[in-house]
Amino acid sequence: MKLTGNCFCGAVELEISGAPEAMGYCHCRSCRSWSGGPVNAFSLWKPEAVRITSGAENLATFQKSPLSQRQFCAKCGGHLMTNHPTFGLIDVFAATIPELDFKPAVHVNYAETVLPIRDGLPKLKDFPSELGGSGEMVTE
Ligand SMILES: [Zn+2]
Ligand SMILES: [Zn+2]
Questions:
Q1: What residues have their beta carbon closer than 5 A to ion ligand 2?
Q2: CB 88 within 8 A of CB 44
Q3: Which residues are placed with Cβ below 5 angstroms of ligand 1, an ion?
Q4: What stretches in the chain show pLDDT beneath 50?
Q5: CA neighbor of 80 nearest in space, from 98, 95, 64
Q6: pLDDT of residue 140
Q7: Using CA atoms, how far apart are residues 115 and 47, in angstroms rounded to an integer?
Q8: What is the pLDDT of residues 77-100, one digit of tens each?
C-alpha cells in the first residue's frame, strides 16, 4: 500500500508505504499546542516507510524536547509529521495523509485530555510501557 500526502500549500509532498505500526489519538499538551486542536490523530510508521518525494528543501524541524522533532513546511507553516527518534517511529499526522484508512486503536496521554472521547477504546494515562511510559490505563 502506498499513500501520498502533502503540506497545506503543497510544496512538500511525501509518500508512505506499508502499514502503520499504530494509530490513535494523543491528548498531550504539546500536541494540542502544536496542532492548534484538542487532540492529535496520529499514525506511527517506521522511518523507512516515509519518503519525501518533493520539496524537501522546504521541510523544517522544530525540536523542543528530545522526544519529538516536529516537521513542518517552511513556506506555509503547515504541519506534516513528528519524528520520535527514541521510539524509532515517525508520527505522520492522519490529516497529512487523507487517504489513510484511519482506524484508531488507542488514546495516549489521556490524563491530559481536554476533550474526553467515550468511544470504548483503551485510554493510556501517558505512553505504553514499551515506549517508556507507565502503561497505566485511565477509565472513561
Ligand atoms: Zn507548505
Ligand atoms: Zn502528544
A1: 26, 28, 31
A2: no
A3: 7, 9, 11, 73, 75-76, 78
A4: none
A5: 95
A6: 76
A7: 30
A8: 999 999 999 999 999 999 999 999
Q: Which three cell numbers stand for residue 24?
A: 490513535
Distance CA 32, CA 119 (A): 20
Q: What's this model's pTM, rounded to 2 decimal places?
A: 0.95
| 103 CA → ligand 2 middle, Å | 18
Rounded to the nearest angstrom, the distance between the alpha carbon of 57 and the centre of ligand 2 is: 26
Q: What angle do CA 67, 22, 40 make, to 5 degrees?
A: 60
Helix, strand or coil, per DSSP, at residue 112: helix
Ligand nearest to the CA of 27: 2
Q: What does the alpha-carbon distance between residue 52 and residue 103 come to, in Å, rounded to a whole number?
A: 24
Q: What pLDDT does 139 receive?
A: 85
